[in-house]
Specification:
Largest sheet: 7 strands, mixed
Keywords: Signal, Transport
Distance between the termini: 82 Å
Number of helices: 17
Organism: Micromonospora haikouensis
InterPro entries: Bact_solute-bd_prot1 (IPR050490), SBP (IPR006059)
CATH topology of the largest domain: D-Maltodextrin-Binding Protein, domain 2
Number of strands: 11
CATH superfamily of the largest domain: Periplasmic binding protein-like II
Family: Belongs to the bacterial solute-binding protein 1 family.
Protein name: Carbohydrate ABC transporter substrate-binding protein, CUT1 family
Length: 456
């Protein structure tokens, strides 16, 4: 038996030879989830990819792979919160996720599912500090870095067409709220609606209205009241919050119902100012809406006035007082690490660097903006991109309040906006219901983040 066993050894070695010399298995691709869709229009897969809203971020991931050799598997989904929660609950989260809701970051810190980044990102790098989101881990008081802001969107902007039929929409940008009200009344006599209103957006319709109310409260009552409200410490029934709703309703004509904002998507409403004749004149939207305008103009050239290409511009949301210091509402996309690995760390370090920001800017047509304090507005070409960058570099920046609120509070806010637009007489009962949700939400679920001084 021993002889037979020994006789088998050469055979086994020969059989094992090819396997022993085979290439090692390829490592698993790094999984990344974000809210940018990969759906685009085009005849080829490559063309559709380049025309998708995810393309600028995908270009950054391609640059990362080219530099490191690490492959990335990207999933774009409108409902990042739901997809991420499902993955975490099943024990299969992505390695890295880009979160559009800041309160989700806190929720995953509290549950212990998010890894800190203190030893991942170079905190002493010039300009990086405003991009770092610090929160205390469970059972601790000292905050740690759990998020890296990779994209910021200016939200206190009002858009208009500069060359509409019948003459300019805006001859001089309103410097105060009273001037904005006067402009609205003047536009009401020109046919069409003064404001382009669209509340639709899957999976959470209503957020364009919450942006309005947040912006008005911030400019009308100041950042202290705004931050208290975002942190659950200011009653919805308070005069300040109620007044913001009423100012919005009076400005946009809540309850008139024509055109119906409840049935119109936000990215469909705004292009109404670009058609001939215009169906509306002013659009309160974040800096990312430029992509929707450009896409509409490219896909519907027949909707423009013959021989006259529509042009558009913006002015910042006006102050309620002539001497008020500039303040802007912003939203962010923040990266979090859900699996601690050398590959995930490498990606986050790459996203924290100027090469990634440069690729993102160029791939987006110079419409990707950052909180990085070392990024000069001169990095953007003259015109609209540089003006947006300068807007973000002047004045105090306060984060989107509903992004900081617990999910249940935000959902109730979205719903209340839609009901209020349909019937403004419901305001009193809606605010009481919102306060009821606020009081039922445990204090530890709220996220209170301070406003930021200008990145520059």
């Amino acid at each position: 038996m021993r002889r037979g066993a020994l006789a088998l050894i050469p055979v086994l070695l020969v059989g094992a030879g090819p396997a022993a010399c085979a290439d090692p298995p390829r490592p698993r691709a790094l999984s990344v989830v974000a809210s940018w869709s990969e759906d685009g229009v085009g005849d080829t897969a490559q063309e559709r990819r380049r025309r998708s809203e995810a393309w600028p971020f995908l270009a950054v991931l391609d640059a990362f792979t080219a530099e490191t050799g690490i492959e990335v598997s990207y999933q774009g989904t409108r409902d990042v919160s739901q997809v991420l929660r499902s993955g975490v609950d099943r024990g299969r989260p992505p390695d890295v996720a880009v979160l559009p809701r800041l309160n989700d970051l806190k929720a995953y810190v509290r549950s212990g599912d998010l890894f800190p980044l203190d030893d991942v990102v170079p905190a002493d790098e010039a300009g990086l500090a405003p991009q770092l989101l610090r929160l205390p881990p469970p059972g601790a008081t000292d905050a740690r870095v759990y998020g890296l802001s990779v994209a910021v969107h200016a939200k206190s902007l009002i858009w208009y067409r500069t060359n509409p039929p019948g003459g300019p929409t805006v001859t001089s940008p309103p410097a105060t709220w009273a001037e904005l009200v006067a402009l609205t009344r003047a536009l009401d006599t020109r046919g069409g609606a003064p404001w382009c209103l669209g509340m639709g957006s899957q999976p959470q319709s209503g957020w364009p209205g919450t942006d309005w109310i947040e912006d008005i409260l911030l400019h009308r009552s100041g950042q202290t009241v705004y931050q208290r409200w975002a942190a659950g410490q200011q009653a919805w029934t308070s005069p300040e919050v109620r007044g913001a709703w009423q100012e919005w309703g009076a400005l946009v004509g809540a309850g008139r119902g024509s055109p119906n904002p409840l049935l119109t998507n936000f990215d469909v409403a705004g292009p109404g100012m670009l058609v001939s004749p215009p169906t509306c004149f002013l659009d309160h939207q974040a800096s990312f809406i430029v992509g929707s305008y450009r896409k509409f103009l490219a896909e519907h050239p027949e909707r423009s006035e013959p021989g006259r290409s529509p042009e558009f511009d913006f002015f910042p949301s006006p102050a309620f007082g002539a001497t008020d210091a500039p303040v802007r509402e912003v939203s962010e996309d923040v990266v979090g690490m859900f699996a601690d690995s050398p590959q995930a760390r490498a990606l986050i370090r790459f996203l924290a660097g100027e090469p990634a920001r440069r690729v993102w800017r160029e791939a987006s047509g110079h419409l990707a903006f950052t909180l990085n304090a070392a990024t000069d507005a001169a990095a953007y070409p003259d015109g609209l991109p540089r003006r947006i960058a300068r807007t973000l570099a002047t004045g105090t920046l306060c984060r989107d309040a509903s992004d900081m609120m617990p999910a249940a509070m935000t959902a109730a806010f979205h719903s209340a906006v839609l009901q209020y637009l349909a019937d403004p007489t419901l305001l009193g009962s809606l605010l009481k219901e919102l306060d009821s949700v606020r009081k039922r939400t445990p204090p530890q679920e709220w996220l209170g983040l301070p406003c930021l001084s200008p990145p520059g």
